[in-house]
Amino acid sequence: MPNIKLTENDLQSILSFSVELARTSGALILEGSAAIQSTSSQSDISEKNNSVDLVTEYDVRVEDLVKKSIKEKYPLFNFIGEESYSSGNRPPLTEEPTFCVDPIDGTTNFIHGFPFVCISLGLIYDRRPVLGVIYNPFLDQMYTGIRGQGSFLQRGATASRQRLPLASPPKPLPSLSQALIAVEWGSDRRKVTIDTKSQSFSRLAGNPAQGVEDGKMAHSLRSLGSAALNFALVAQGGLDIYWEIGCWPWDVCAGIVIAEEAGGLVSGSHSFFASTSETERFGVVTEELLTGRKYIVVRAIADTSTERGIDAQRRIIKEFYESVQDVDTT
Ligand code: IPD
Ligand code: CA
């Protein structure tokens, strides 16, 4: 049991604080973007594991700002952040409230000026994601969610919040062939990974009547370049499914809460899905799932007279996992 007890009211005030912090961080992200786009110098951009795994001075500055603000306001909370983790600060997960933060999700987009970039602020409590804020300062879109209290989108600082998903009731999803699916290339570019992913993408998109064996002919595939925004778009209902191998808890923690509160269903790897899908653990985001680095999320699907929404989500994930292949993470 956690020593620090959080009530629903506490979570609401943590959400207000996080929204404010996301807006302040968003201003710094925009300032950084202007600086990066106005110079041809690449000196602010560094490589992490390889030449497509990038970090800028602004990833570190935003994380420092966020970490400091959290420390001041919630000195007893733990903190996991992408850049702190990269520089060796890797605290184990405990039951206590823990902010799980990606200061800039979509760093490659940030560098290129492609406006799908966000800050992702998640809170883990009792080892489960319970609160999420995802803010894209380029589009001024704020996604928020608290476990048990719904999730929302606010477009523009003065607009009213819209409950997610935007479609009410949620639309049906008869099969993968009707789906708009987000996938990502990620930064693991080993032959085995790229070949396996490419074959999976080919099967999802390809026409079985025109030579693509087991092709599903999905409506299309998208890569926004930000795991957090992919989750947010699934919550919204603009994407039907998002699948990725290789991202980290800070990429998905906030998105998990926002998607689940919008009726989305989150699961993990092929084996995680296989071992939980017919049990009461189906759709429960455990620590194993959160840290498992393999994620699939399906948007809300309304119940019909013949099938419950959760059964439709299970059926869609089953069809999806029969079409794509798993691959090890590095
Ligand atoms: C990355 C983005 C990308 C996903 C990678 C993440 P970053 O995060 O979310 O969409 O494919 O797995 O690492 O590096 O931009 O924070
Ligand atoms: Ca990042």
Please explain how this structure is put together.
The chain is built from 10 helices and 14 strands. Helix 1 packs antiparallel against helix 2 and helix 6 runs parallel beside helix 7. Helix content is 37%, strand content 20%. It starts with 7 loop residues before the first helix and ends in a 7-residue tail after the last helix. It is globular, with a radius of gyration of 19 Å. It has 330 residues and is an alpha+beta fold. The protein has 2 domains: 156 residues, 2-Layer Sandwich (Fructose-1,6-Bisphosphatase, Chain A, domain 1); 147 residues, D-Maltodextrin-Binding Protein, domain 2 (3-Layer(aba) Sandwich). It has a 7-stranded mixed beta sheet with strand order 3-4-5-6-7-8-9, with helices on both faces. The protein has a 5-stranded mixed beta sheet with strand order 11-10-12-14-13, with helices on both faces. The chain binds D-MYO-inositol-1-phosphate and calcium ion. The site of D-MYO-inositol-1-phosphate (IPD) has 14 residues, from strand 4.
Largest sheet: 7 strands, mixed
User: Do you know the CATH topology of the largest domain?
Assistant: Fructose-1,6-Bisphosphatase, Chain A, domain 1
Which CATH-level-2 architecture of the largest domain? 2-Layer Sandwich
How many DSSP helices?
A: 10
N to C succession of SSEs? HEEHEHEHEEEEEEHEHEHEHHEH
CATH class of the largest domain: Alpha Beta
What is bound: which ligands? Answer: D-MYO-inositol-1-phosphate, calcium ion
- Rg from C-alpha positions? 19 Å
Question: Between the first and last Cα atoms, what is the distance in angstroms?
Answer: 33 Å
Structural class, please? alpha+beta
Shape: globular
Strand content: 15-25%
**Domains (count):** 2
